[in-house]
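Handout, page 2. Input:
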Amino acid sequence: MQKNKRAASRVQFEQGLEVTVFAIDGTWSVKGRLSDISKTGAKFRALTEVNKRIQSEEFFLALTPDKKVHRRAKFVWERKGHIGLKFIARSEL
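Output:
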């Protein structure tokens, strides 16, 4: 049995929530579907090409089409088009 290493419980989206991950400077973005989210991170499936800079830069995860609801995040892992993110707390900025 695999041990759950997550720091917080997650809310899952059966159909997936349409989201956009975008660079802080606005130079790249990735469209996707959010699979699950918690107060510490999220998982989404990329629907467009993933810019390699996602692995080395902080970025925003926009939860609404107008990008007004967003979280600052960083890349944690990628497997078969799914990407794991860790949210960055204000105290870490």
